[in-house]
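hey m, so remember when u said the tokens were messed up on ur end? i reran from scratch. heres the input so u can diff it against urs
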Amino acid sequence: MIGRMDLPGGGSVVVENGYAYVGHMDPPHGTSIIDVRDPKNPKLVAHIPISEGVHSHKVRVHGDIMLINYEQYKSKNPPEAGLKIFDISNKSKPREIHFHKTPGKGVHRFTFDGRYAYISPTVEGYQGNIAMMLDLKNPEKPEEAMRWWMPGQWVAGGETPTWHGTATRCHHPIRRGDRLYISYWHGGFAIVDISNMSKPRTVSMLDWSPPYPCPTHTTLPMLNKIMERDWLIVTDEEVGEKLNETHNAFLWVVDITKEDLPLPVATFIVPFDGKSTHTERFGAHQPAEQVYGNTLYVTWFAGGLRAVDFSNPYQPKEVGYYVPNPGKDQSVVMSNDVFHDKDGKLYLMDRYDGLEILEPQV
């Protein structure tokens, strides 16, 4: 650890050009902008508060544009939900330029490449969140470019869900080239061809829950071939005793060389002899989505941050780990999200308290 800042717990952290952006878990804390050009002395530059009933725990940045989600949170009342867009050319005075409103609970996790936002909104007529692309060529007037949903979600179109309630829903899409890799909460994942955005084509889907109880969280494609094959790293999310008491969420290695037939070939898990609870979880969550080589950094909740080498995808190997001390007024660690900057530094956000800046020795 080379730097630390006490902050209310966060659901995401991204870093660009010397500034870190944190989406907080609980209102009234919304989004914080932090100057990390001196990583040993991070400084709060701006904060955007939010009202009760929603949280904006996810944030993405590209250039002078920042996107934050608005999602229903700990409230039964319909919220003002969706995706907010800010001009951050002046980091100390972020300026809202558009609110893309959605019905229902709003937007969960998403990604952003500067032109398109790949979001997971609730949409009228659909059960649960779906996948959607927004074109932000004009960020003050975003336009829907594409939508994709799992068969059974479009109830207004006559489809019938094969699951109960809204448990099966889009978690978030990640784009590589003309493919979207879409994780589905209790629904596995889908690989979708978006070479023709007006007609997205489902290449394949794979779901292992059930029999495995933990919901799928992230589907991250590796950048380059390893052993002359293409790979997808998939994390399920540990949810504690709510679903199981016998094993914890782990990470899957999926061979997608033949992308219409994705094949799991290995797993990675951190051994744990205790009991995982919802407030003190021990299990997989979120890898850094910035991929530079064969080693990924994965948050493991109470297990901190794990460095996993996939040079041999059939035998993923842990090559390092970091478990922080509990943050201010906290008795447990809940490493929630991590960003891997191009200069090598890691930014680790705790679900309850604290942002840590790390230099990996791996």
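this time it looks ok to me. The mean pLDDT is 95. if urs says something different then somethings off w ur setup not the seq
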